[in-house]
Design goal:
By secondary structure, the chain is mainly β. It is built from 1 helix and 9 strands; from the N terminus they run αβββββββββ. The chain has one helix spanning 3-6; strands spanning 18-22, 29-32, 36-43, 49-56, 59-64, 68-82, 87-91, 95-98, 103-119. A hairpin with a 5-residue loop joins β3 and β4. This is Transcriptional regulator.
Protein backbone atom coordinates (compact mmCIF):
# COMPACT_ATOMS: atom_id res chain seq x y z
CA UNK A 1 0.00 0.00 0.00
CA UNK A 2 1.41 3.40 -0.91
CA UNK A 3 2.08 6.05 1.73
CA UNK A 4 -0.72 8.20 0.27
CA UNK A 5 -3.24 5.32 0.23
CA UNK A 6 -2.38 4.40 3.84
CA UNK A 7 -3.10 7.96 5.02
CA UNK A 8 -6.54 8.36 3.41
CA UNK A 9 -9.84 8.36 5.31
CA UNK A 10 -11.48 4.93 5.48
CA UNK A 11 -15.15 5.46 4.59
CA UNK A 12 -17.14 2.42 5.74
CA UNK A 13 -19.82 3.28 3.17
CA UNK A 14 -17.39 3.37 0.25
CA UNK A 15 -14.73 0.79 1.17
CA UNK A 16 -14.90 -2.91 0.31
CA UNK A 17 -14.30 -4.66 3.64
CA UNK A 18 -12.47 -7.89 4.42
CA UNK A 19 -15.39 -10.18 5.39
CA UNK A 20 -15.24 -13.30 7.56
CA UNK A 21 -17.99 -15.70 8.63
CA UNK A 22 -17.62 -17.61 11.88
CA UNK A 23 -19.25 -19.37 14.80
CA UNK A 24 -18.03 -19.51 18.41
CA UNK A 25 -15.80 -22.56 19.00
CA UNK A 26 -17.78 -25.56 20.26
CA UNK A 27 -15.87 -25.60 23.58
CA UNK A 28 -17.01 -22.01 24.29
CA UNK A 29 -20.61 -22.31 23.09
CA UNK A 30 -23.19 -22.31 25.90
CA UNK A 31 -26.49 -21.95 24.03
CA UNK A 32 -27.92 -21.53 20.54
CA UNK A 33 -26.31 -21.62 17.11
CA UNK A 34 -24.94 -18.10 16.63
CA UNK A 35 -23.58 -17.21 13.21
CA UNK A 36 -21.33 -14.20 12.97
CA UNK A 37 -20.11 -11.95 10.17
CA UNK A 38 -17.24 -9.50 10.64
CA UNK A 39 -16.53 -6.83 8.06
CA UNK A 40 -13.11 -5.43 8.86
CA UNK A 41 -12.72 -2.06 7.16
CA UNK A 42 -9.37 -1.11 8.63
CA UNK A 43 -6.21 -2.75 9.99
CA UNK A 44 -3.11 -0.73 10.75
CA UNK A 45 0.38 -1.70 9.62
CA UNK A 46 1.19 -3.24 13.03
CA UNK A 47 -1.77 -5.64 12.84
CA UNK A 48 -2.83 -4.54 16.33
CA UNK A 49 -5.54 -1.94 15.53
CA UNK A 50 -8.79 -2.81 13.71
CA UNK A 51 -12.16 -1.24 12.97
CA UNK A 52 -15.28 -2.61 11.36
CA UNK A 53 -18.78 -4.00 11.69
CA UNK A 54 -19.74 -7.25 13.44
CA UNK A 55 -23.11 -9.01 13.28
CA UNK A 56 -24.45 -12.07 15.07
CA UNK A 57 -27.59 -14.13 15.35
CA UNK A 58 -28.76 -15.10 18.88
CA UNK A 59 -26.65 -17.36 21.05
CA UNK A 60 -24.45 -17.44 24.14
CA UNK A 61 -20.72 -18.19 24.46
CA UNK A 62 -17.73 -17.74 26.77
CA UNK A 63 -15.18 -15.02 25.95
CA UNK A 64 -11.69 -14.06 27.12
CA UNK A 65 -10.34 -10.75 25.81
CA UNK A 66 -6.65 -10.17 25.07
CA UNK A 67 -7.61 -6.96 23.23
CA UNK A 68 -9.30 -3.68 24.21
CA UNK A 69 -12.55 -3.23 22.26
CA UNK A 70 -14.80 -0.22 21.84
CA UNK A 71 -18.33 -1.27 20.78
CA UNK A 72 -21.28 0.76 19.51
CA UNK A 73 -24.47 -1.28 19.12
CA UNK A 74 -26.31 -0.24 15.95
CA UNK A 75 -29.02 -2.92 16.01
CA UNK A 76 -30.27 -5.56 18.44
CA UNK A 77 -29.61 -6.36 22.08
CA UNK A 78 -26.83 -8.17 23.95
CA UNK A 79 -26.08 -9.19 27.52
CA UNK A 80 -22.47 -9.40 28.66
CA UNK A 81 -21.59 -11.01 31.98
CA UNK A 82 -18.24 -10.83 33.75
CA UNK A 83 -16.96 -14.05 35.32
CA UNK A 84 -17.73 -12.45 38.73
CA UNK A 85 -21.44 -12.53 37.84
CA UNK A 86 -21.90 -8.79 37.16
CA UNK A 87 -23.85 -8.25 33.96
CA UNK A 88 -24.73 -5.49 31.51
CA UNK A 89 -27.41 -5.34 28.82
CA UNK A 90 -26.90 -3.10 25.79
CA UNK A 91 -29.30 -2.15 22.99
CA UNK A 92 -29.06 -0.08 19.82
CA UNK A 93 -27.43 3.27 20.56
CA UNK A 94 -25.30 2.03 23.47
CA UNK A 95 -21.52 2.26 23.49
CA UNK A 96 -19.01 0.64 25.84
CA UNK A 97 -15.43 -0.62 26.15
CA UNK A 98 -14.41 -4.17 27.00
CA UNK A 99 -10.87 -4.05 28.42
CA UNK A 100 -8.11 -6.56 27.76
CA UNK A 101 -8.30 -9.24 30.45
CA UNK A 102 -12.13 -9.37 30.55
CA UNK A 103 -13.42 -12.91 30.93
CA UNK A 104 -17.08 -13.87 30.91
CA UNK A 105 -20.03 -14.53 28.62
CA UNK A 106 -21.47 -12.78 25.53
CA UNK A 107 -25.16 -13.41 24.88
CA UNK A 108 -26.83 -12.07 21.76
CA UNK A 109 -30.50 -11.77 22.74
CA UNK A 110 -31.75 -10.68 19.31
CA UNK A 111 -29.96 -10.27 15.96
CA UNK A 112 -27.29 -7.67 16.65
CA UNK A 113 -24.85 -5.45 14.75
CA UNK A 114 -22.09 -3.34 16.26
CA UNK A 115 -19.31 -1.04 15.14
CA UNK A 116 -16.04 -2.12 16.72
CA UNK A 117 -12.62 -0.62 17.24
CA UNK A 118 -10.05 -3.07 18.59
CA UNK A 119 -6.56 -2.48 19.92
CA UNK A 120 -4.41 -5.50 20.74
CA UNK A 121 -1.71 -4.49 23.28
CA UNK A 122 1.83 -5.77 22.70
Amino acid sequence: MSEIASSLIVDFGATAPETTHSKPPADRLIDGHPEQVARNYFSDSTGRFFAGVWESTPGKWRVRYSENEFCYITRGRVRIEHESGRGWTFSAGASFVIPAGFSGVWEVLEPTAKLYVIYEPA
